[in-house]
Description:
Blueprint: E1 2-3, H1 4-11, H2 15-24, E2 31-32, E3 39-41, H3 46-57, H4 62-68, H5 77-113, E4 124-128, E5 131-142, H6 146-163, E6 172-176, E7 184-193, E8 209-213, E9 216-226, H7 232-244, E10 247-249, E11 253-257, E12 263-264, E13 267-268, E14 272-282
Amino acid sequence: xxxxxxxSQLGQVSTRMLRHYDKLGLLKPSNTDKWxxxxxxxxxxxxxxxxxxxxxxxxxxxxxISRLLDNGDDLPVAQLRGMLTIRRADLSQELQEKQAQLxxxxxxxxxxxxxxxxxxxxxxxxxxxxxxxxxxxxxxPSAPEMEYYCKVHHEQLYALMQQCGIRPLTPEITLYHNKExxxxxxxxxxAVSILPKYINQAxxxxxxxxxxxxxxxxxxCLIYEGPYPGMxxxxxxxxxxxxxxxFVAAGPLREIHLSGPTxxxxxxxxxxxxELQVPIVQLTNG
Length: 286
């Protein structure tokens, strides 16, 4: 038998963690001296300890590991597969959120690097014609989830158009309707251009919107080229231009996808070429 200190060295686990596993019933000592309270372990218990460590390294909680080991050292394969499938989905979501966060940081750094310098974007003010669109307008719970919901909304939009016999044109358009900054409950409309004749078509679907995107007398516009999350730098450039040239926004930000579909076979097409448009009016005193 091994004292707890010796067993911790064999298993490369602290004595504190061994006591914690004992408390949870994950790995109880083979024997505990009733007089001294010393814990003793056998070499046979080393394999169970290694299994606990391996499952913990996969990101499973101690509670999950405990359920898996309830029937001894024989792992129930179906249960383990289910837990690992859930864990894989969680890790994938975390990676997407971290990647989006990293790209926003990069965009902010780029913006700071150009602070006080001429904008890297050529911003023009022009009129915008009206455009017939088919769209769905659904909130995105939070900014880090934009990538996931953007993909889902595009898939839903094209599926609904196919059901209703409406042929999509180009370009795709995304509209951001929030009037104030927020990183939760983002009011996003996912759209694609269509022929005007479809606008008055009767459809048996309350989810699909057929409407005309109105013409605009003046809009501040720029061309952005790069990964989708990096377009934050372009949006900041537009906002700065509008504020420093005596304008105010008069409508939602329009994201025009000049380079083609956002997704092909479920894969986001980066880098993209986008035209960012913000309808504007002249700021009046009083």
